[in-house]
């Protein structure tokens, strides 16, 4: 039995609250149950040095957690003077995932930065960041489309969403919350597109190594979950 | 005429949304019009070194802005590797202001950290942080009171709130928004208590120096505004 | 009775020793009693990025304390790897104060950096830094005037000086030394110009909040003290 | 055809040169073709704070690249003042992988740090680091066993090795070198144990998303390759 | 002919101004011509970790230059976030030199930090720092002697001073000023004790390598100069 | 008797292993007994700012120690966030030494960075770095000569090598290993050219000051040792 009483293949309540920022070109407060991530997409003229004068654009992401988004207050990264390894790892993952559905050539020489700030954490912040970050990115591109800066359907090639799956108490389950995540034997994050392509797989044995069969079960759950997430994304922005 | 069409002595719409964090002992999303600051108060066992074994506690504050809380995206302080001078200045001010109404001896040897994170900025973030931070602090102390850790009325000596006033287009006005703040000749922040005591005054001439008369006018407006803010605080937590 | 036996409205002995640096365009060792601050004004061709090609110049300030300027040796900021919040706050204040009397357009596209290094501290280092920094700035502008780079009287619009006042043992007093500063209930710094304009007011209740009447008393003392400081500045550079 | 003329399921020449450090308790220079990583395992008495007085030990890893281990000289991380995101990500992976085969309780309250320094890079540095780091760790544990500090077979539960697989020019291939890695559509790293358990899977679509079938092909190759690597490890330390 | 018209073996005017700090246990403003270094010696109870509970003390030094001590303003090291290589090199040298004449066992478990801050630079700042730092150290030890904390003559074993010599325009000269230092072919710093022992020699060919004969000539000059400096130290503290 | 049973004027076994890097333009693994330093010379188009458009090039060096190159594991400098004083001091010395034999004008506007990474330390790492760094630099210049970018004999003016000498147990000895270095009373490093010119002398009394006679003895040994090292360099690259 899961702590939340959910079925093994049952996701938490998912919601997307769009347009929550007065300033950002695209924004979304995404909720996976008690995990809440504020995503904003900011359009900037300047691109990274290696893209200058190539006509190609860039999509990047940054990730942060508010100090008391967690059960125990964490030290503020701005105050400790650097971003930790986990932060850097997550923001690289979010950036790669979002870029996988963008045609950077069609975007033109601009940069979109998607900031994902966790205001409340209860497990699965990186998958929520990718799934909600997509909505913010979409809305930023719509904003540009409305101003004739791009053609939305040329730049945005597909939907992309992410979910975590894991072996909890011997059973493969979908969308782990913190209570499950902190005790799961195995934890895997999957990023997939609307057409079913795989963008990223990260599976980690927390204690004992896992088997092929277990991994295939997690992958099956992920496919099911992501397909549901993408339906919800379509309802949100459709 | 103010850009927002407000009267010179008219504050923006103020609201306090309490209990918005599942984890923090006290929390509040405070809104001064389009300025939104998320405040959490976190109780911790450890105190700063110089208070160890004194029986006295501490209240401190940290301040941050989400990168796209502003019109143009700012660099994330965690990524630039340090907190800027403005951030340090504001969090020192918020900490001093909140401590002015707490009996640190009666609090006992614990620390409360009030995190003020600006999710949307439209001028006056420091005054919103103090005013909303007070609510989060109050609720944290209530939480402790309910667990017989302290007596709320022994520890919390008074209310405290803050407002900015300035000379806009030659007229003294209350609670400047960004459009006013960025062009005001003079800008002053006032922090006062429920009993009318002054905790902090910070007045700055942005262009021309200001006169005694102008300053007295600002101070009068501030007294009026803060008294209204404290009424609203009382309604929120009373 | 003040620890120094001074009258409530009695300043410490003030002196300006000009031209103490062989290299700087303007320099001054200012003494407020046992508080000694070495001020140098350095002319540089480059301006901050946002002023490039605007024809406008800039005046900025930096502040530091020698490690043993204080009763107990402090850690060197260069060795701890960053400037603390107090340092940043003070140097921002000194810069704003000096800019308030300079016509940046008439200065032309150059930068003057006023370094204020405390060689011995006994309270009131920031007010000494502003008051002595003005002399260094004046002498740098004279140096430029003598070389036909500017017209001194077009660029320098007024005098500017600063003083701290506070409530010590229930009595409003002027120009607090360390013994007073460390126990004062209320501490306020005032920056004013030769024509009597107010540039900056910073008042802080260290313990109990203060009243309007107390604040007005401090402000009255400040006006008296600053007017005396500006007389001394005039004697020094006149 | 692969740039190196290897068959799709052909690994590069692998070698382990043990005992290459006079000082370290265990050490190994591992070569995967032209990728050379120097691994040392250092025994230390102190453990991280959260393990103090628990009787449990810790195994951790650090990773670095010499500035000219790559085709173009990279900036030295010690000089730029921080370890980049990629470095932190890799050393966290190496640490997790090595811990997966160690009984930390049986190790006792000591820490082993495995340093993996790339002296020459030609793709696959993280998989070489894990595979060679295991040898250094093994030899450190043997050193402790010889001194009756632990029982080797109680502490070291299994072998562990890693390999990268990818889709190069449409074909799934094993053990990518730099020429392949920099142009592969998909790149996945696998970490597995001697008993066939999966410790970590990291698959990333560099360009187009990949399919289930492609991923299964990579996983099949990885199983084959890792099983060969573990045979080589056994020959090295058996 | 030297730019300063001095004879090859002629030092600049040397002076020691003692007791210039109200707070420090020992202090000295040393002048080698236009090179002025403010030296303070601070007594602290705590010693570095590796000396704790050994009964032995420590003498260390820190070095800094005020930003406008030089012809062109330098960036403040506290603001750039780290001490440069030259600064670290000099403060290590000053510390070693002063320790060479102190019996750390007889000093007892305390630390003396000698801060050397260059207020005006004209070449030879490190030799002035050592020579003047000795006076500050001496006076700090006298202060301790007067309080029966140590026996001065047991702790301070000898005098120590330093001078730079170099080949300027083909001629070996003593005590180089900036005009000479910046064009000298060879530059050497010597640290010696009152009894004539050598503590440190640092010779560097700036352009062409130098010969044995040249080096011996510099060493002869140094011996002469240091012996004069030590006479002056004796007059100052004797 | 020396711990290694060597004669006072006997060097450790010296070897140069060239071409050990697939990527670097010049490279050499130098061994002074158990001290092993990996040196690579990297050619880069960009020069430091102050040389831009002067037609002159630059040679610089960087130095690092692998964390377990020493008896006890040291903290990785990349992880501690800065290079220590000793590291900066050594890399400045290596750079100066190598530049002393290069005609920077004839080199043309390029930069060569010589990285010296200590893979195993047993005393004398800086002298090994200079001596081996020369070989890497030579081979980089040969690489450029072969591509008609420079004339080797115009750019490289001489050989350069370095050795440490010290007073061990009262006897002047050559090429100290760690056992000697850590207990020697006096330690001096000498850098000289093939023609016998002196490039750098650094002598330090670790305990008691040393005498002229002792220093002359060390210098005599150094001359003998360096002359032997340069013979070995000639055999290596001749």
Question: Would you mind describing this structure in some detail?
Answer:
The structure is a homohexamer of 238-residue chains. Chain A is α+β, with helices and mostly antiparallel strands. Chain A has helices at residues 77-80, 85-99, 104-107, 125-146, 152-155, 178-181, 212-237; strands spanning 14-18, 26-32, 35-44, 58-65, 111-120, 160-168, 171-174, 186-193, 198-205. In chain A, a hairpin with a 7-residue loop joins strand 1 (14-18) and strand 2 (26-32). In chain A, helix 2 crosses helix 4 (125-146) and helix 4 packs parallel to helix 7. The longest helix of chain A is centred in the last third of the chain and has 26 residues, at 212-237. Chain A starts with 13 loop residues before the first strand and ends with a helix. The A-B interface holds A 21-24, 27, 34, 38, 40, 42, 44, 62, 64, 66-71, 73, 76-79, 81-83, 87, 113, 115, 117, 119-120, 122 and B 21-24, 27, 34, 38, 40, 42, 44, 62, 64, 66-71, 73, 76-79, 81-83, 87, 113, 115, 117, 119-120, 122. Strand 9 (198-205) of chain A pairs antiparallel with strand 9 (198-205) of chain D.
């Amino acid at each position: 039995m899961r702590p939340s009483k959910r079925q093994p293949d049952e996701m938490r309540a998912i919601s997307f609250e769009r347009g929550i920022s007065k300033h950002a070109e695209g924004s979304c407060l995404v909720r996976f149950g008690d995990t809440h991530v504020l995503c904003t997409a900011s359009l900037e003229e300047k691109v990274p040095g290696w893209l200058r004068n190539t006509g190609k654009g860039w999509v990047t992401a940054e990730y942060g957690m508010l100090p008391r988004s967690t059960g125990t207050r964490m030290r503020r990264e701005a105050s400790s003077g650097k971003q930790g390894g986990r932060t850097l790892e997550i923001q690289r993952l979010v950036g790669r995932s979002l870029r996988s559905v963008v045609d950077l050539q069609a975007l033109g020489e601009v940069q979109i930065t998607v900031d994902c700030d966790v205001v409340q954490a209860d497990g699965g912040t990186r998958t929520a960041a990718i799934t909600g970050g997509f909505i913010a990115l979409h809305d930023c591109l719509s904003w540009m489309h409305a101003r004739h800066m791009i053609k939305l359907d040329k730049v945005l090639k597909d939907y992309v969403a992410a979910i975590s799956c894991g072996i909890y108490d011997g059973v493969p389950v979908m969308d782990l919350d913190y209570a499950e995540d902190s005790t799961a034997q195995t934890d895997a994050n999957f990023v997939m597109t609307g057409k079913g392509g795989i963008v990223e797989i990260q599976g980690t044995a927390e204690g004992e190594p896992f088997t092929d069969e277990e991994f295939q079960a997690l992958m099956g759950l992920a496919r099911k979950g992501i397909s549901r997430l993408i339906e919800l994304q379509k309802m949100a922005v459709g």
